[in-house]
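Feature request, filed as a ticket because there's no other form

It would be nice if the structure record came with a short human-readable summary line next to the tokens. Right now we just get the raw output. Example of a typical job, pasted below so the devs can see what we mean:
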Amino acid sequence: MRILHVEAGRHLYGGARQVLHLMEGLANAGHENLLVCPPGAEYIEPASAFARVIPLRMGGDLDLGLYARLLRVLRAARPDLIHAHSRRGADVYPGLCGARLSIPTVLSRRVDNREPHWLARLRARLFDRVVVISQAIAEVQASMGVPAHKMICIRDAIDATGFAQPMPADQWRAAHGIAPDAVVMAMVAQFIPRKGHHELMLALEALLPRHPQLYLALFGRGPLEAEIRQIVRAQGWTERVRFMGFVDDLPRQLGALTMLVHPATAEGLGVSLLQASAAGLPIVATAVGGIPEAVQAGVTGILVPPGDGPALVRAMESLLADPVRRAEMGAAGRLRVQREFSVQHMVGEHMRLYRSLVE
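Raw output as currently delivered:
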């Protein structure tokens, strides 16, 4: 099969990384990938190993010219199937183009936010199938009138092989000027409101004075980063909170840390949670969206109600005080990711879906 993928994002965030995993698996199975994406996108170079990349200007939902530009690409490429992976126009125009050219179309839905019901139903009509990455997203879509027969749940995946050789814990701490016996908590997320950085800052007010051995490593970038940095400076936490930005060796670094916290207010599934489990880290997270599907409560981590600051603090302190439980949860998480969230399983589910539409 020849599959044309449309990804409108510019950064190598979780969604784009899933597209790379999918294209690599499809290429290894003998299928041909074409990737339409914005010029200069961060993932063009790694994607070129598995796909023919077609840079195309994408101006978002109101970029009416995108329809004509994409139509020209499709007429030249003649794919067997179109898979739209993101929003900002990529969740509308590929469906319109597919209908015009009688090409089967698939849309991936990665977020659980609500929208006008008429818009959700209209979008679903444009595509032959809507892939949701969690049952929580499926339930939200169904509540807005998207028919169940249009949806299929295929969860995100993690390549666990990259987590097999973590950086030694003392080496990571030495590199960042931290004592060898320090406990390092991580958060891996874009600096955007729904990820919960402000909730974590409130929890630190209670935690840091009581736990002098506790440090926090924040991985990621985003529009709220400057504001969070200002809070850290104002509180006098600059020695206890490290801003890591984007790192190329996240799997190795995560394995050197102690636990992961993710106090999101909304989440489709949470790839960073799967990454933490693959690295053997116990997790404290909020029970919203697809997070309860990524974190098995009481087994691979602790889930707390969203917006409940005291419960968040209690959950983190319970793991800080119990290294044996941390190790047990980390081991359970690693095993669960290998069994239930493998790239091979995700790619196989997509191939079965593609065949059912093309044939």
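Something like this underneath would help us a lot:
The chain has a mean pLDDT of 94.
Residues 63 and 89 are 7 Å apart (CA to CA).
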